[in-house]
Request: fold
Amino acid sequence: EAPRLPPSRRGAAMAANGFGDAARALSSFESAGRPADNLLPGGGLYTRGAASDVRWHTSRAELKARLRGECSVLRQVWCSLVIYLTMMLYGAAVLFRNIAFYRYRGLDWYADKVMPSQVSVALTAPGNFIVNASSGVSVPLSSALREGFYGGGSNITIATPGLRSNLSALHGELFNLKDFSQDYFVDYSGSEFVQGLNEAVAAVSIALTVAIFLIPLLVSFRGQARPHVLSMLHRWQRTLFTVSILRVPTYLATSIPGAAEHCQSVHWTSPIGGHGEWEVNQRHAETVKDMFFDTFNFFNNSNCGDLIYSGHIATALTSTLIATHYARRMLGTRWAWGVCTLFWLIFSLQVFCVLTTRNHYTVDVVVACYTAPLNYIANVYFFPKDVGPKREEHGELERDSAC
Reply:
């Protein structure tokens, strides 16, 4: 006689696969002799025995059962989701970045600190001239001054108050640290198209991740898992939360001169006549009130000081890893390969845009590329199972506490 599912498993199968055809599904599972393997730890259900590789779950009974399961998951995770989103959208994106901007100084600030306040030169030394600012005529310093007053071979000291580094000598080149990508990659820092593409790629990566989560709501593949939408969303947000929080002490520990054009000084001029603006934008992060409530730099993408490591790369790589994680479990082989390839191509394009627009140094991208996978692995290790619907012994949904 074929083995039968225990009552608790039978109730789980009925809720996960839809009450309408639960009896038929259970009969199929039991006759196949694989009762334990057909159920997921998180409450999803394999679709072995389906007539085709793809099965649509669009009947009213199936959708109703699925939504009941989603509501059960929501009751368990809504509190943590609110915390994750608040910390990412406000804490990591506004508050801590404003604090980083308050501490930020451009590379020109460090150069100006070592500028001399006075210069001492010898009268008779060759090559010392006085230049008439109006006519441009230059004469030797020893001839321009009265020889008898100063005496032969004596020195003259010239005060130079407020002397600044000569950024015009760069001829539009960014005043940045020595960096691999800036030495060998094409420079698109002045391209509005590539700047916009960088933000668009980040948005597409997030949108496609959400789209992957919505697939099992209506579709399942033969022999593959069918996890709940909010279970996947919860894992994704928890992983993004930890990688975002890890950034904060990293970039606050050491303030590095920014690589982007808007992190250059107002005295710097680009090849097309634009200017840096970190001194201007920093005025929005000068007071405690500004740090907590000013969102000017957040919405204008003009923050400086939050470099190591790149948030764009960490978010894109985390989304790619999560999408790969679920695509291999939910989709058929060819579909999974297609989804994984698409996400990794999008991630590669994100790396290209971040580096060529000079928004980050190469080290910011390198650190993100090993921090995000390690963070993902840690999340899978400590939370191996997705949150699933909780049920009582008779298959009814429990009323769970919010937190």
Remarks:
- The chain has a mean pLDDT of 79.
- The first helix runs from residue 7 to 17.
- The longest strand covers residues 118-122.
